[in-house]
Amino acid sequence: MLNVEGLEVRYGGICALHDVSIQIHQGETVLLIGANGAGKSSLIKSIIGVVQPRAGSATFQGYKLNGLRSDQRARIGIGYSPEGRRVFAAMTVRDNVLSGASRLSQARQRDTYDRLCALFPMLEEKAQQPAGQLSGGQQQIVAFARAMSGEPQLLLLDEPFLGLAPVWIQHISDAIREMQRRGTTILMSEQMARPALKLATRGYVMRGGEIKREGSAAEIREVALSDEYL
To answer: Which of 46, 65, 198, 207 could form an SS bridge with 58, CB 3.0 to 4.6 Å?
Structure first.
């Protein structure tokens, strides 16, 4: 489904990614694990088009991603939930969520919002409230629902559990499992990997902008234990 080869990303004179290659197959949930600054977010941002690589290539479902804008990547089926939530603070919760579903008809948008409200009752309770007034955990739910609302084939999750209380981590984990049941392919980054490894089928360990290890979730769990990512 997604094939990334030889990716290099630089910020000025700093090399954030060096010769990074990953493959993700249909229906997988793949975890990127590594310390802060390992290159996880840079890799996800390069796939969605927020960051342009200096070298390398990426293809998704036969589409060459190089040169495509972020909105074009979204239209071919890539969804993105960024690190730090980043909701539109002045917009209502409902408008925030449906901003990710602009390519759908109004009827499908209504159906999508109803489905998401069934998964996250908070979305119905807070539908007309400005998203900036919500707690951090509630904002993460809004950001995640926004990414889900476009019905992506591939969902990119950048640090979805960052700074959340256990109750919100459980809500996000339940939502990820629902996406998995629907057949959505997921690429997720996490610094502290314990909750993410419960969801992943396999993973990559990143350090210093490079892929250091790859393997099944069980194999990556052993590496995470030894490197104190848990």
So the answer is: 65
